[in-house]
Specification:
six-stranded antiparallel beta sheet, 767 residues, 23% strand, 26% helix
């Protein structure tokens, strides 16, 4: 619309909630609609009309009270020339359109008419959102309007658009008016709404008159429907136009998102549903708007409701949107280039499925009236494949209209070949996202081999699967605590090793339903599994109960699961390629959440013995550093690929000796040595070693000695046992002793991996 309109209908709305700049942000219903007609050609004003709309209330008592209040309000003179009442919003909008049309026709000057509002909120944030939530058809006149603030700024370029309001514009034009003092959080009085409309009409007349002679053309447009389309990864998307919506129902589509943001203009193909690593919708969407102004209005709908769910709205970036909706495939662009097509996603197809089989799947059977022909035949089917051409079991199908798509969705979980097929209504952005995931890289990245498989063999460790002295509990109630587990074990509670209960948490830090327990012997573990298997465990927290499966397992299997492996897919006796990890692997640098508190280790020597030692060392030993539980073969600096459920052991997470295999309490031979390769160089000597090995029990006459072993490798350290603690006693070992220790006469016993301040790990070996 480029020519001057014949009439302007100045409109003002009021809700039962906030007003002013936060109008419509609280989802309150419209209770008042005031308007006045302005004859643009003759510069005349019509009568002021007021329409009072009753809110929808389910409680009859509240309805009666509201009617009493409205009758009292009607007796009060609001200043309007014509006051009417509507039972609901739909009746009110139709009555508004009817009265406005009759008034324009009775004037006889012209036929073109457009609404004029103070800002964007009255039309975009009040009328359209409430009508969409109640499935009300809005009259056509509400899809275009003039923003009086933007029209005013054309004649006053120096004014700040965000700071403008009716009273500041009237003051700039010399219109006398007294601004009332209002509370933005209270309901707007009816007489104030009438005064606002009268002031806006005066501003319009002042702009139409000399010296401005303003031309009202090119009104604001409100999109009546969402337009799907494609987006290229090379396209530039502004960071100020994208939001992230979270908490969507899993079955919602891009049309549902457009309905939630009704009144705001979404860019073509600007609604992109996010998928998780399994290709399923995760309840999030990225939405791109046509301008920053519409993005800011969308942020005001934070925690508005879509059905029974509230939706969170946050800012996002253009790169976030391109990662989801952007694509480079010409095949996808050609598939999505057809206009007015409805997309349906097929999941679970046989790998040998062909175009003809898909067409036959959607062809109507004899005697059925529901038809769902595929639009374009074979060209309307897009199979999703891996980069090497292998089928993924997914496909997208086009239908010409909504009716055909709904008939096709009725075939959900029908059989094609020997498999049932899942059908979902899809979007263009979802097509791009699925194709990008499968074509650029595998949907589930291949994780490296477990750390256990690359470590050197440990002779004194039990062979895989031979010493099954642990229990695995599966199917625990999610509210079960360690006390519930101990109650479930009953008489076997005395057979649990110290710190031997390991509850497995998922990636969000919640219980996964699994638990590992270290027992004192394989016999007691087997007996416990036989007696407690499929017995019922009751959670004291929520009084819910489930039967629990109990299996014996080895410490190696327990460690493998806690490090991200899976017992159901990993065989200990047979070498297999792959890790058996569930998708998607999650990188994690810790095995316990940081919010857990760990009890401090007990004192390793008495106060009297520590007083006789070197003073700084005695203080260190009296207050040993508490070490969090960890795995005996997990270096702190390593990048570990975790399972999809991101297993974390919960405290108490490990025995007192850090790993799953406790070190011997006393050395079997006097004068034993421990080698510590991998010390940082330069080092502070004995102090660093004391900090590294504190928490281990030593006799009163034990001590630590630091000595270089090789001239080429001064970072290697030996621990020995002189008679008393002294920093001056250093025992230098000859090369013959080193050769004897490596010759096999004295076996090497792995103790643990101890974290150092530098973030590395020490491999302690008893020589």
């Amino acid at each position: 619309m480029t020519a001057q309109v014949d009439y302007l209908a100045v409109v003002f709305t009021a809700t039962s909630g906030t007003s002013g700049e936060w109008l419509g942000s609280d989802e309150k219903e419209i209770v008042q609609l005031v308007w006045q007609l302005v004859d643009v050609q003759n510069k005349k004003l019509g009568k002021v009309n007021e329409l009072r709309i009753k809110p929808d209330l389910s409680d009859s008592e509240e309805k009666e009270e509201d009617e009493v209040e409205e009758s009292t309000t009607e007796q009060h003179n609001s200043g309007a020339d014509c006051v009417s009442t509507a039972e609901n919003l739909e009746t009110g909008l139709n009555l508004f359109h009817l009265q406005l049309t009759n008034e324009v026709n009775s004037a006889g000057t012209g036929t073109s008419m457009c609404l004029c509002a103070d800002g964007q909120l009255h039309i975009r944030q009040v009328i359209h959102p409430e009508a969409a939530s109640k499935n009300i058809l809005v009259p056509d006149c509400f899809y275009s309007f003039f923003d009086i603030r933007k029209e005013f700024k054309k004649d006053f370029p120096a004014s700040d658009l965000k700071a403008l309001n009716v009273y500041s514009m009237a003051e700039s034009l010399g219109i006398p008016i007294e601004a009332p003092t209002l509370d933005p959080e209270s309901i707007l009085p009816p007489e104030v709404a009438v005064q606002q409309v009268q002031t806006m009409a005066s501003i319009v007349l002042a702009l139409l008159s000399e010296p401005f002679c303003h031309l009202f053309s090119n009104p604001e447009k409100v999109n009546d429907k969402f337009e799907s389309g494609t987006c290229s990864k090379m396209e530039k998307v502004s960071d100020n136009t994208v939001i992230r919506a979270r908490g969507l129902p899993w079955q919602s589509s891009d049309q549902d998102i457009a309905r939630f943001f009704r009144g705001l203009n979404i860019a073509k193909g600007g609604a992109a549903l996010c998928l998780n690593a399994q290709g399923r919708r995760n309840g999030e969407a990225l939405v791109r708007f046509v301008s920053e102004e519409h993005r800011d209005l969308a942020l005001q709908r934070h925690k508005h409701h879509m059905g029974n769910r509230y939706i969170e709205v946050y800012k996002a970036t253009g790169d976030d949107f391109l990662k989801i909706a952007g694509g480079t495939s010409s095949e996808v662009a050609m598939f999505l280039s057809r206009d007015d097509q409805i997309i349906v996603r097929m999941r679970g197809l046989p790998f040998t499925a062909t175009h003809d089989q898909v067409l036959s799947f959607f062809s109507p059977e004899d005697g059925l009236k529901d038809t769902c022909p595929v639009s374009g035949g074979k060209d309307g089917i897009l199979f999703v494949r891996y980069p090497d051409g292998r089928p993924t079991g997914d496909a997208f199908v086009l239908f010409a209209c909504e009716e055909h798509a709904q008939n096709a969705l009725k075939k959900h979980k029908e059989i094609l070949g020997r498999r049932y097929i899942e059908l979902f209504k899809s979007t263009a952005a979802e097509v791009q996202q699925v194709l990008n995931r499968y074509s650029s890289a595998p949907l589930i990245p291949v994780a490296p081999a477990p750390l256990v498989s690359v470590l050197p063999p440990m002779p004194l460790l039990p062979p895989p699967g031979t010493l099954r002295d642990c229990l695995r509990l599966r199917g625990l109630p999610y509210t079960a605590s360690i006390d519930d587990i101990l109650t479930f074990l009953g008489e076997f509670i005395h057979d649990i090793r110290p710190h031997g209960v390991h509850m497995v948490l998922n990636q969000q830090g919640r219980p996964s339903g699994d638990c590992f327990i270290q027992m004192t012997s394989p016999e007691r573990a087997l007996m416990a599994s036989q007696r407690l298997h499929k017995h019922v465990m009751t959670s004291q927290r929520c009084q819910n109960s489930r039967y629990v499966e109990v299996f014996p397992c080895s410490a190696e299997e327990m460690g493998l699961v806690l490090m991200g492996g899976s017992l159901s897919h990993t065989h200990t006796r047979t070498q297999r390629s792959g890790t058996g990890l569930s998708p998607p692997p999650c990188k994690s640098r810790r095995l316990s959440p940081p919010s857990y508190s760990f009890t401090a280790a007990p004192q390793v020597i008495t106060a009297e013995a520590a007083a006789a030692l070197y003073p700084p060392f005695g203080q260190v030993l009296l207050a040993p550093r508490p070490l969090p539980p960890g795995h005996a073969y997990y270096p702190a600096s390593a990048q570990l690929y975790m399972n999809y459920s991101a297993y974390y052991p919960s405290p108490p997470g490990s025995p007192t000796t850090i790993g799953f295999f406790p070190s011997p309490s006393a050395l079997t031979s006097p004068g034993g040595l421990m080698r510590m390769p991998g010390l940082p160089y330069p080092t502070n000597g004995v102090k660093d070693i004391i900090n590294a090995v504190q928490g281990y029990q030593y006799a009163a006459e034990d001590a630590l000695v630091h000595a270089p072993v090789h001239a080429q490798d001064p970072s290697r350290t030996l621990l020995t046992q002189p008679k008393e603690w002294s920093p001056g006693e250093v025992s230098v070992l000859s090369s013959s002793l080193i050769g004897q220790s490596n010759g096999g006469d004295a076996p090497m016993i792995p103790l643990s991996l101890v974290n150092k301040p530098a973030g590395q790990f020490l491999d302690l070996s008893l020589l």
